[in-house]
Amino acid sequence: LLSVARELPYATQREKQAVKLAGLSLLFFSASTSGMGQINWLHLMLLLWCAIGSLANPTGSKSSSEGTLPQCGYESCPTVKENMLNVHIVAHTHDDVGWLKTVDQYYYGSRSNIQKAGVQYILDSVLQELLKDRTRRFIFVESAFMHKWYAEQTSAVQETVRNLVNEGRLEFIGGAWSMNDEAAVHYQSVIDQFTWGLRFLNDTFGECGRPKAGWQIDPFGHSREQGSLFAQMGYDGLFQGRLDFQDKQERIAKQKMEMMWTTSASLENSELFTSALYYIYAPPPGFCFDVLCNDDPIIDGPYSRDNNVREKIDLFLETVHNMSETYLTNNIILTMGEDFHYQDANMWFKNLDKLIKYTNARQADGSMVNAFYSTPSCYLHAVHREDIEWPTKSDDFFPYASDPNAFWTGYYTSRPTQKRYEREGNHFL
To answer: Which pLDDT does position 429 carry in this prediction?
Structure first.
């Protein structure tokens, strides 16, 4: 039982500690029936005392000044409501570590004539907004940008960030240096860049900085080898954005958007829960509240002629009900963010607060929709408690076609120079 407790997926630390305590109880029972010396009984008493102490402080962290313990991981997850449709609202930004601009240009926000994107402003802004409301949550993926930004902060700001991580309000997902391609790269490159990113998170934030979910939302197709690496690294699940348009249509029609992916024919424990996101990784139409978007905000002024609360919430309820018909549980994950969003995080969070408030207010009129801030790992936690028999898959998600005339295959079938650059680049890493 003591060893099993260390391996329990989706369990909270308190649940794992309960299993450990059960194991120690069995040890006491065995000792009482077989007879033991006084010294061995003292040893067992010390073990039990330590177990009880760890139950009182399951994270092993020091208490805060208010006497409360930091809660990260599954302990920090919001409580879902049974017999309701639980909408996990995930505030996120997708920040390419080099695309149309260089890494520094993306970080500092230069060359806006190419793309208006500055990651330093995203992290500055999100930090301030998270501090305004303890229910707000945010996920961050690309460790390269977090490493660069964190190093520039004062010790006071760094402490604030660590506290947010310890409380589960800022959560790292994926955790690699960047979100790697899955077709043209060598597996050693993938391992190395995950090692680099995860080492930074572990050294800086400890156990609370360890990602529990993979987040491959923008690669153009997915390889079974990538899934195998996630399974071997101990991730509890994987979220994907881009599926072949015909494959996605079929999965939506047959409620197969989530599955158990057998990622290896030879390795043990190679199954990985995999979820395909409904809107790739974007918000649903009408609910993009970023400075880069054109959707109307939620206008709730009681005397405003532009008040649109009823229309917005009607559209939202229709949207989530349509989504729910393609998934097997009463939980759905809603991605609220896009490329380099949250440079003005106030716009997003102010409107998401209203969206959650007015959606849940409809419950008084009989609505069965429950919306709240969440994270991919909290979604995994909720879904896996429903004991569903999932569809299975054992092959790649290649080739990827975004429409009938767009097959994203040339970059790995006819670009040998690109592969050579990737191999050479790995030597530098």
So the answer is: 75
Q: 238, 263 in Cβ contact below 8 A?
A: no
Instruction: Name residues whose C-beta falls within 8 Å of residue 156's C-beta, 6 or more positions apart in sequence.
Output: none
Contacts of 297 (CB under 8 A, 6+ apart): 289, 347, 350, 351
Domain with CATH 3.20.110.10 in the chain: 82-422
The pair of structure tokens assigned to 85 is 């449709």
- Block means of pLDDT (10 residues each) for the chain, 429 residues, are 48 55 52 49 50 42 40 93 97 98 98 98 99 98 99 98 98 98 95 97 98 98 98 97 98 98 94 98 98 98 97 98 97 98 98 99 98 98 94 97 95 92 89
For domain 82-422, the CATH architecture is Alpha-Beta Barrel (3.20)
189 sits in which H/E element = helix 187-205
Whole-number Å distance between alpha carbons of 44 and 397: 52
* Dist. CA 337–CA 281, nearest whole Å: 7
**What is the Rg, in whole angstroms, of the alpha carbon atoms belonging to the chain?**
23
Q: Which of 184, 87, 165 is nearest to 126 (CA)?
A: 165
User: Rounded CA gap, 104 and 338, in Å?
Assistant: 20
Q: Checking DSSP bridges between strand 271-276 and strand 237-240, what pairing results, if any?
A: parallel
Contact of 300 with 348, CB cutoff 8 Å: no
Q: Which string of DSSP letters, residue by residue, matches 282-319?
A: SPPTT---STT--SPP----TT-TT--HHHHHHHHHHH
What is the CB neighbour count within 10 angstroms for residue 26?
Answer: 12
Q: Please list the active-site residues.
A: 218
